[in-house]
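Translate sequence into structure tokens.
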Amino acid sequence: MPEVIVITGCADGMGREVARLLAARGDKVAGFDCDAKGIQALKQELKGDHLLMPLDITDRTGLRSFRDAVLEKFGRVDTVLSNVGIGFFGPFEEVDLERALTCLEINVIGAAAIFQAFLPSMRERRSGKLVAMSSLVGQIPFPFESIYTASKFAIEGLMLSLRYEVEPFGIQVGIIEPAQVSTSFAAKIHQLPPEGSPYRERASRFIARDDVLIKTAPTPIQAAQRIVKAIKAPRVKLHSQVDFMSSVFLGLNRFLPRAARDAILINYMDIKA
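Result follows.
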């Protein structure tokens, strides 16, 4: 039986590829993105009985209207995948906290809003899956990504707490934790600190190393294949990764002492002072 799957942030990258794969399997996709042109292009590509619309995750009224339209059209939702998110890069000392607030609003409250919107209908049916796209940095903090790291730590805490509340109603909770995916996501946020910044030289090395790693990272299609496998499993795993490196780092993070973990990260990202 085809499932109804809600995806936020599906106009580009992994979200778009997940939508394409699900539609190809016969599932019904309901999604949105603030990129109206991307949504229109996806709508023309998928065809079929789907529901796609331009919408900003911070538009609470629009989000409720989207929920109502999805439930009216399909009668239920089987899975909600919170994929919307923005990056944030820079030394914490130099961070614009107003911009940081926007990142936290989109990455954390955005996920909370989409889950809260569909949770009542899932609870009434005593069935459903709530899956959040987190990141490797949701468990392993990276330098120069303090705000982004904070948003992903918050997602992990949100989902781990939410699980206790909703599992008695038959609702499964999952977290997907990619490291790097070969998209333009990092390039959009990588910006060197200004001349004279005490962090500029190390941040430059970090960016250069990240650029190298992205070249060998999974493509959006490869990542999407693993995401689809995770969300379509009869039982969603609490923690899933889409690349080998995430699994390695998370494994080391669980067992190595902090000094050893720090040394590996600093050397791996070429940021030794």
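Note: The chain has a mean pLDDT of 93.
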